[in-house]
Input
Amino acid sequence: MEILLNKLKQLNFKSFPGEVAHLKMAPFARPAFDLILKEAHNYKPSAVAVVICFDENNKPYIPLIKRPVYNGAHSGQISFPGGKFELKDGNLFNTCLRECFEEIGLSNIELLTELSATYIPASKFMVKPFLFYCTQKNPLFNIQEHEVESLVRLYIDTLLNDNIIEKGVVEIREKIKIKAPYFSLNEMKIWGATAMILSELKEIMKNTIS
Output
């Protein structure tokens, strides 16, 4: 895994698959990207932290969070730690660091590379992902209960397993359902922007390993 991390550090996100990988896990009703960009002129910039951590057995995983149920577009969904850009941040990288610490208490992380941005029409967020690795083995998490219901571990070997990809109906909010592909993990459905970002990471890792 250390060899893979070193390889990831040397990659340039401009050569990443981006939308091609995103579309593999995009909701079926999602408009074409060029149409989305026309709608996105009033988007809200945001950033998420995709962090590779190592457990007590040195197995790599990505910490995801389950959002609590609330009256909003992302109620109850599985996502990365992250959030909206604030002026005090100065840039999206700092937004990412701040949100990661606020939501799961993780600060001992180092940047590997950027990932491709994607737009979320439901909430008008333009999301910029940053890929990190945690420098502390088996880190302790301090969850912000107001924004995080629970922490979910997605192990890298699970992500690279194509058998966890399924297609079906996902629920956005009460009585609102759409058809989409998703990663099935312990009876949870990881879909939407989170699944699209993971899809790009999965392709990058497979190409880097090969």
About this structure: The chain has one domain: 2-205. The mean pLDDT is 88. The longest helix spans residues 192-209.
